[in-house]
Amino acid sequence: MTPRLTLATASRVLTQLRHDHRTIALIIVLPCVVLGLIAWLFDGTPVLNQFGPVYVGIFPVVVMFLVTSVATLRERTSGTLERLMSLPLGKGDFVTGYALAFGLLAIVQALVLVAFTVWVCGMDVAGELWVLVLCAVLSAILGSALGLAASALARTEFQAVQLMPATLFPQLILCGLAMPRAQMPEVLEALSRVFPLTYVVDALGGVARGLAFTDIASEVGLVALFIVAAVLGGSLTLRRRTP
Amino acid sequence: MGNKGNVVEARGLTVVRGTTTALGGVDLDVPSHQIVGLLGPSGSGKTTLMRSIVGVQRTTAGSMTVLGRPAGHPELRRVVGYTTQAASVYADLTVTENLRYFAALLGAHASDIERALVAVDMAGLAGRTVGTLSGGERSRVSLAAALLGDPQLLVLDEPTVGLDPVLRRDLWDLFARLRNDGVSLLVSSHVMDEAARCDRLVLLREGQVLADATLPELLERTGTSEAGEAFLALIEARGEEGR
Ligand SMILES: Nc1ncnc2c1ncn2[C@@H]1O[C@H](COP(=O)(O)OP(=O)(O)OP(=O)(O)O)[C@@H](O)[C@H]1O
Ligand SMILES: [Mg+2]
User: Fold this and answer.
1) A33-53, pLDDT tens digit by residue?
2) For residues A75 and A165, is the Cβ–Cβ distance under 8 A?
């Protein structure tokens, strides 16, 4: 890997995004609209304060996953990936470049979403605000990283869109939102431990209950590890030579 | 790597793609400082052979050296320029933004972009988004990207397809200038009248090299007056042998 090439790739991806105002607007505005709806729906109840922080982490995962997996798949189908693989660009440069560009977008998205839910929707965060911001940013980056890793499996855009439900729905069901993990059948509880979304929800649930950063540091650390693993996995599954 | 001999040497190169044998034991020498035309009908293996040369094709058997190194060697990625059959550039970036990225990957100077654009007669459209260009304009942007840096070998997959006669003549003039400047070129085409612009011809059919000669040699051997007829004569001769 060469930092110069990684940065050139990240900057190219960001330039592409800059040309696409509609996508940027969707990425930034859509999660805010969803959170706004939830706040309105449960107006006058403690639901937003209880679950708002968790949703602030979950919607960005889904949005960033989709955007990233489709963007990298487009690179495959347009032939530009084939050209890049014939050029002096490392596989790690390619994947990390994408991760950096979408990570930056993820940070903006998370900041806007937290600001919107706290100041516009009036969510009362029991824990510290900076911890919520940190978790929201990490979960958005996680979505990107998982999208990068998963796109290696897709051959068409139809498949890429299917990857989102295939990889995220089981995680959403088992992450502890649908049922507290302690009450799950043993096998499913064990399964939930290998899913990154579980730790996102654990960490953000902690923030909602007013836990300090030190109490959820291990969950946050695990999410960061999953991000690194997904980016590594994405670089390793990328093939310079294809059949 | 300034070797005088052959820029590409293949021995028994075999490539199986899915269930088809795209290349069935190809022996090939591409001499340096020449324009070698790679001709053959659709599905004959032209793209597969070019992908093998630039190191993005998984090969099944045989060997191939490019500029004295095994095909796909990292050192080659800087000195072998490649255009895929479909224009492989980013449709959502401008012409200049595209070339700026590829120049960054090659470590080429920014001034190189202007030179490449002038070479393919696209300097006037430098600021346009590639997605708004015609097919022929797009493929010339793709070609410009392959001219960046200091390529010693250009592998061009059907660079003139879909272009009008004037543009095609201009591009072949460009190829001749590049050859005179010391670049070696392998250019695929299935327009037989372009054969006259090549120093040597390689005729490919069903993954086999049917002929590897200069045009005059080929015409003499088959007693024909142009490349298309020569090609048909060779195919018929093959058929008779097989009977
Ligand atoms: N991705 C692929 N998977 C499986 N088989 C493939 C693939 N690409 C090409 N083939 C097969 O390999 C053979 C050679 O294809 P190739 O693309 O090299 O031909 P070509 O000479 O470039 O044809 P054209 O002039 O149409 O571009 C064909 O029989 C084709 O069907
Ligand atoms: Mg082809």
Assistant:
1) 999 999 999 998 998 999 899
2) no
Question: In whole angstroms, what is the distance from residue B48 CA to residue B7 CA?
Answer: 18
Q: Which of residues 82 through 111 in chain B touch A, CB cutoff 8 A?
A: 82-93, 97, 101-102, 104-107
Helix (H, G, I), strand (E, B) or coil at B199: coil
Rounded percentage of chain A residues whose pLDDT exceeds 70: 100
What are the boundaries of each domain within chain A? Answer: 3-237
pLDDT tens for B204-229 read 999 999 999 999 999 999 898 888 88
Span B162-175, mean pLDDT? Answer: 90
Specify the pLDDT at position B4.
57
Q: Is B67 left (phi over 0), alpha (psi -120 to 50) or beta?
A: left
Sequence-distant (≥ 6) Cβ neighbours of residue A99 within 8 angstroms: A141, A144, A145, A148, A231, A234
* Out of A20, A241, A243, closest to residue B72 by CB: A241
The pLDDT value recorded for residue B241 is: 65
Do A198 and A181 form a contact (C-beta atoms < 8 A)? yes
Q: Say whether B104 and A8 touch across the interface (CB within 8 A).
A: yes
Q: In what order do the strands lie in the sheet with B20-31?
A: B20-31, B6-17, B61-66, B69-70
Give the residue on A whose Cα is nearest the Cα of B146.
Answer: A83
CA distance B77 to chain A (A): 5
Interface check for B161 against chain A (CB to CB < 8 A): the answer is no
| Among candidates B88, B97, B104 on the partner chain, residue whose Cβ is nearest the Cβ of A83 | B88
The rounded distance, in Å, linking the Cα atoms of B187 and B210 is 17
Q: Which residue of A has its CA nearest to B74?
A: A88
Q: How far is the CA of B48 from the centre of ligand 1 (A)?
A: 7
From B203, B154, B160, select the one nearest B38 (Cα to Cα): B203
Crossing angle for the helix pair A3-18 and A21-41, to the nearest 10 degrees: 70
pLDDT below 70 — which residues of chain A? none
Residue nearest atom 6 in ligand 1 by C-alpha distance: B17
Residue from B15, B26, B47, B56 to probe ligand 1 pocket by mutation (most atoms less than 8 Å from CB): B47
Q: Is the pLDDT of residue B193 over 50?
A: yes
pLDDT (tens digit per residue) in A103-127: 899 889 999 999 999 999 999 999 9
**Cβ-count burial of A48 within 10 angstroms (0-12 exposed, 13-18 middle, 19+ buried)?**
buried
Asked if the ipTM is above 0.95, the reply is: no
Residue B94: strand pairing partners:
B129
